[in-house]
Amino acid sequence: MVPPTPLSPARLERFARHIVLPEIGGAGQATLAGKHVALIGLGGIGSPALQYLAAAGIGTLTLVDDDVVDISNLQRQTIFAARDIGHGKAVSARRWLANFDDAITVEISDQRIAASNVAGMIDGADLVLDGTDNFATRLAVSDACVAAQIPLVSAAVGRFQGQVGAFAGHMPEHSCYRCFVGDAFDAEDCDTCAEDGMLGAMAGWTASFGAMHAIRVLLDGVSAFGDPQWGMVHLMDGLKPAMRSFKIAKDSACRGCGVSIA
Question: Is 179 a catalytic residue?
């Protein structure tokens, strides 16, 4: 393992509230500074998740979204403002990030994700956080993560419900996202928040939980907070409110990570 790069005095001060936590500490914070996260989708999940990943001191972020900002996004996509309407989300997110912390290295892509190009978008990442809103994209991202041996944190939200799970399907004993949802959703034909609605704060709860889970994965083996909980899906209910969790077993016949493709 490459030793973490020492933090400058300014960075030590910025992340002091993390460093004093015994579960993270200086070693954990320095590790986060050396990590690269690819954030797929900059909408209701990606916007708040970006804020907390950046605030946590992740050193390199790749931001992927082909959409433009619409006025209806502002109810839940917290990095955008009225001046961003009509502008690309990836470019607008990079502008927000530059204003927030110009020490973070940022790469962007405004290409639409497909099975043919997703590998290049996540190349070099230590972790992928997927907050996209359709199953075809999610499955393409999952398959690419398995092929590239990159851990995936998947987060989704709709109406008053959210779900977050961490997957490591490239490991023989762990499931991937396709093990969870199966093959029936490869077509882009699912409900959208425009049709069903979404409580903005529910997107924030799910996104912040996803960002926290990403930090857990990145700190695995480094600090006491590192606990990936591979294959565990956490369901959040904003109406009760409540949360429950369950484990996804590896499917040996899975097209993404099954033993037949190993």
Answer: no
